[in-house]
Amino acid sequence: MKLRKWQSACVKQVLQKYNNYLKHFMCLATPAAGKTTMAAEVALQLVKQDKIDFVICFCPTKEVEQGIRRTFERHLSRSFNGSIGALGGVYTYQSLLTLTPEFWQILREYRVLVIFDELHHCAGDRLANANAWGAQILINICDYATYTLGLSGTPWRSDRLPITLGRYLDDNQIECDFTYGLKKAVADAVCRQPRIVLIDNDRITVTSGKEDAKIFGSLTDAFSGSDLAYKSIISEQETMKHILSQGVSKLSELREQNPDAGGLVVASSIEHAIELAQMLQSEFGQSTVMVSHQDSMPSEIIDSYRKQTTEWIVSVGMISEGTDIPRLQVCCYLSHVRTEMYYRQVLGRILRVNASVNQEAWFYTFAEANLVKYANRIQSDLPDTHVIYELENEAANYSHGGQTGQSQPNGISELSLRFDGRTNTNLSNNGNSNELYKAPDYQLIGQYRQKVISLFKI
After folding, report:
1. For residue 318, which of 63, 128, 374, 416 is within the disulfide window of CB 3.0 to 4.6 Å?
2. Is 305:325 a contact under the CB 8 Å cutoff?
3. pLDDT of 426 over the 80 cut
4. How far apart are the C-alpha atoms of 194 and 190, rounded to whole Å?
């Protein structure tokens, strides 16, 4: 398999560093650039040079785990399912908590390359500030792996803790050994050029309690100058219908050239997702599938959508980092999550280049202040990501058997459900995203307007 130029350059630097007796390498490559193939090539070269016996990969989710396994088996022409005779295996970060001492003994007795996909899920440079996953890396991998390779498209954390195995400069910003940003990826035709559409309204009235109605000229002003909450807007019938109409119109346009082009809707809850899916079907006549962790086989639903021509897939957290569906070209972002890391990872789902004629990528969202800020600094590979080291000591009781006295980290919550006119899953949602909140009365009585941010023009 022919490597992309950046992949070849990165592999060369990884091997050079390992040859200089430096065991850890950190690669920042923009989402959708092809980090997994690069990592598989590193493994292949180390095997050919007889420098490793096994390869172990860790990643955030089962869906990503399956994708990594497929890529490694295809690239190395070896079994990679963790069984006897395999070159190695891939496991979720969650499994770090249950792996046995016998498993960890492999790193002590053999030469092992350990690869961490989206390493930013693991926090802590010492046990006192580590989350449960980071602690297991510090205890069982850090001193025993022959080589380690960290991969991330967004190497920072919302809680500003240091990433496990990360090196930080004097200003507490992470230092990466290799950086391949979105601007370069677009110029190299490795990723699609993103077009981010910020949807707004020029006349919004808000009435709270007995107060007189206030009139605002934008959503940002309404959010900051009243009790109106962002979650009210993304769950309002009128605004949902408007943003979906924009996405449907663009997808229909794209499918004139790319018949299998697909759209992604990122919802806030299962109930929200069902409502959006029903709207896509009944209001716009779109073929639609849903996916959530409550499904018995969410990975199969995603894989089926990947291979078919269904127009839309509606997801709550399931399709973000590492999920490879190259035919996705439109996204309507209606998640309540407003962190820059999640925003960029979701954007990356529509940036994978494929063989289609039209390679446009359109990302629709509302003009909330944080989302506007993130859109305007997409061109920065590392935004304001300085970590905070000053933390109170935490009592932690770890053992080498993978058990911990600390609660599990707050990882991504994967929700999924297929919608075909009836439900096959318990739809209760016990998440804390719907805390008690009494929305004020409001109306969007002005004209909708939108600003298109077209980045990295070629």
Report:
1. 416
2. yes
3. no
4. 12
Strand partners, 174: 168
Angstrom CA distances, 430 to 382, 414, 427, stand at 34, 13, 10
Q: In what order do the strands lie in the sheet with 448-454?
A: 288-291, 312-315, 262-266, 328-333, 361-366, 194-201, 448-454
Residue 448 has pLDDT above 70, yes or no: yes
Per-residue three-class SS string for 250-272 = HHHHHHCCCCCCEEEEECCCHHH
- Mean pLDDT score, 287-294: 91
Asked whether the CA dihedral 113, 182, 64, 167 is positive or negative, the reply is: positive
- At residue 291, φ and ψ (nearest 5 deg) are -145, 135
Mean pLDDT, residues 198-216 taken together: 85
70's tokens: 């497929």
pLDDT, residue 210, reads 66
CA dihedral 442→273→358→342, nearest 10 degrees, is 80
Provide the pLDDT for residue 395: 32
Q: What average pLDDT score do residues 62-76 get?
A: 94
pTM, two decimals, is: 0.83
Which domains, from first to last, does the chain contain? 5-180 (3.40.50.300), 187-382+441-454 (3.40.50.300)
> φ, ψ for residue 56 (rounded to 5)?
-125, 130
Quickly count: other Cβ atoms within 10 Å of residue 21's Cβ: 6
Q: Cα–Cα–Cα angle for 440, 444, 445, nearest 5°?
A: 125
pLDDT surpasses 70 at 155: yes
Task: Name every residue whose Cβ is closer than 8 Å to that of residue 67 and which is 6 or more positions away in sequence.
Answer: 36, 322, 323, 324
**Contact present, 67 and 319 (Cβ < 8 Å):** no
The answer to whether the CB of 66 falls within 8 A of the CB of 222 is no
Give, in order, the Cα–Cα distances in Å from 189 to each of 32, 116, 175: 11, 26, 26
**For residue 206, is pLDDT > 60?**
yes
Rounded Cα distance, 109 and 426, in Å? 46
Q: What's the token pair of residue 131?
A: 């989350």
> Of residues 273 and 402, which shows the higher confidence score?
273
Q: Which of 6, 35, 8 has the alpha carbon at shortest distance from 183?
A: 6
